[in-house]
Amino acid sequence: MHLKQKVSSYILILISCLINLDTVLAQNKKIDSLLKVIEAHPQQDDVRATFLLDLTKLTIVNDAKSSLKYPNEVLSFQNNIKDKNIVSTAHRFKGLVYFHLAMYPEALISLNKALSMAIPLKNDFAIGGGLSNIGLVYMTQSKFPEALKYYLEGLKRFEKIKNELETTRTMANIGIVYTEMGDYAEAMKYYQRVLPLFQKLKDYEGQSSILANIGILHYKNKNIPEAITYSQRSLKIADSTQHLRASARENGNLSAYYTELKHYDLALGYGLKAIEINKKTGNKKSLGINMQNVSGAYLGKGKYAEAKSYGLKALQISQEVNITELKRDASKGLSEVYEALRMPDSALLYYKQYTKFADTISNDKKRNEITRMGIQFDFDKKELSYQQKELLTGAQLKQQQLELALNQAELQKGLQFRDLQTVQLQNEKLRSQEKEKQLLIARNNAKLQASKVSALSQQQKLNKLELKQLWLYGILALVVLGSVLVYLLNLYRIRRLKFKNELQHEQAAQSELKLKHQHQLTESELKAIRLQMNPHFIFNVLNSIEAYVMDNEKRKASRLIQKFASLSRLILENSTKSLVTGDKEWKALMLYTELEAMRYENAFTYSFTVLDDIQLKTLYLPPMLVQPLIENAILHGLIIEPKAEAHLSVILQVQGDRISITVEDNGIGLENNSTKNAKNPVKEHSLGLASIKERIDMINRQQSAHQASFTIGSGANQQGTIAIICLPFFNGNPELNTEN
Q: Which phi and psi angles does 589 have, rounded to 5°?
């Protein structure tokens, strides 16, 4: 059993300037402009008051809390205002701000104050607006007869001054009252009448509201797909005009509709979005409805803890705003949640609360209907009297008086009908009490019946157990015979599998021997390449030491020898392995670069960078693969034509599923590099690049999944050289890769 969802009707505010805003951007520009004008006009007079009220119009819908200060400021210097219509409007705007903040008693005080000031001023527009705004507050509090009374009075004022826009909005609100009072046919007449008027007036918020309320009528008539269609049309208009309250309303309604269709994920998405928006706007009533809708969606998904949490929040909000319908829906929802949680006591407690609130609403609806009929009759009678005064002439006077007498008879009939409805109301209350008693009796009978069924079930289980024991002995005999047959069959299968397994082992051994020979061949080729590179590197370092000795720089030569000793030790350790840990190889590269910098009197700077939080101790790299690139960058790029900002950069980073090592210098570059090396005539050409390419090819032969690569080219603007080696992630162990 799923909770009947609650949808929110949208209420139109009868102030013309509150709604016709093109976009939020334009609104913000107007607000900024008004703030500047107000700041430039500090005098507390009619002009400043008018600007403050205009600012209230622009901010009341989306930021009601902050807009309250503007009418309060106007009222603070009301004695200085000459036009008392401005003071009346300030009270009315203050009441509307309180309405947006769900502070209904305060809203009624301010609106009644505005109305009492507008009547002596004979301002029909202000009187009509005040009456309609009071009806708005009563409608929000579900006091529909009072709301209808004020709306009908307000409608007369707007029709008198022929204000088409406000007349249309008032009729739309009367349609909402009929919807809430259950007179759907009458409500639909009003909606269909005002929708083309809003389209004619290009009142987008009015169109959004009417579409939403037509959707609600379809929902109440169980036509959920049609309700969703109208609600989505309304939401599209609300989003396009950036109207937060309308957007929150339609997200909440769509949540209710999709819950009814058991599309709980969609219902949760719309419901949570509505809650987020209503928290910003401070609309407590809508927030309570949204909380209840989300609770119902979670209940449908079987997430009872979340359903309980949102249900309790909905009940708390309903108590704060003191709206009986919200209390009823929240109590019913919690009753269903606790029933799903198998907590019958709590479920019964909330069900009793639900019954009490439902009875109150039912009684109120009957009283409201009777009152509405009386109000409607009074209104019709006044309208008839007003028409009679205009139409009565000498010849028609007797006929009109006869019709008046007939209307009086109809009034008496209406009063009799109201008395009959009162009696029926009392009967309904007695029936409700009787139903509650019958519900308790039915629950007790159900518990007694469950106890009897449990005892009978236990006896049946005992009888079945005795029968099963008789069958068990027969089955055991069959199992023993079957086990012997299975044993013989498995013995035959095991012998066949054993022969097949021995054959597979022989084939695997032959494949392994073939792979081992291929790996040994590849390792031999790699070892030959490394043995070519080690003397090549040592030769260059010894040349550096010789230079210092020849220049009689003993201290520098000593430091160079010490560092060369450390570097030689690392090279000797690494040269016997196919892979070494990243920290050892990185240290060797840094030592070599430091030796070359010392050799050339620090003619260049250098940097070594490890990115992406790479752990060098757990990373494996081929030894002596990057060193030739550093050597070429120094000897063929930075030293040939020395400059003050000469720099060498080595970067280790992760690129996708590979390790990237970048060696970059800002030397003369590839295009300007001559084949002759003036700094080192012994080294006329480099074996390093060819060796690197050979080693990359060897690595790619061993790695089928992830290939290594090597690229070299000019840097940015043809300045310097950049070389990049990309290697796969090796899972090697240097201790296992030692070459003998």
A: -65, -40
Please tell me the pTM assigned to this model.
Answer: 0.41
pLDDT classification of 108: cutoffs 50, 70, 90: very high
Q: Say if residues 707 and 658 touch (Cβ distance below 8 Å).
A: no
Rounded to the nearest angstrom, the gap between the alpha carbon of residue 31 and the centroid of all alpha carbons in its chain is 29
CB burial of residue 307 (10 Å; 0-12, 13-18, 19+): buried
Q: What is the CATH number of the domain that holds 628?
A: 3.30.565.10
Q: Is residue 636 part of a domain?
A: yes
173 occurs within a structural domain: no
Whether residue 583 lies inside any domain: the answer is: yes
**What does the pLDDT look like over 297-337, one tens digit per residue?**
899 889 999 989 998 998 998 888 888 888 888 898 898 89
Looking at the structure of the chain, the number of domains it has is: 1
605-610 and 647-655 beta bridge pairing: parallel
d(CA 555, CA 559) in angstroms, rounded, equals 6
Task: Specify if 267 maps to a domain.
Answer: no
Q: At what angle do helices 184-201 and 204-220 cross, to 10 degrees?
A: 160
**Does residue 306 contact residue 340 with C-beta atoms inside 8 Å?**
no
Beta-carbon-side half-sphere exposure of residue 268 (alpha carbons within 13 Å) = 14
Give the tokens for residue 102: 């769900």
CB 533 within 8 A of CB 691: yes
- CA 701 vs. chain centroid, Å, equals 50
DSSP character for 517? Answer: H
Dihedral (Cα; 373, 379, 380, 386), 10-degree rounding: 170
Provide the residue range defining the domain that includes 658: 521-728
Task: Identify the three-state secondary structure at position 581.
Answer: strand
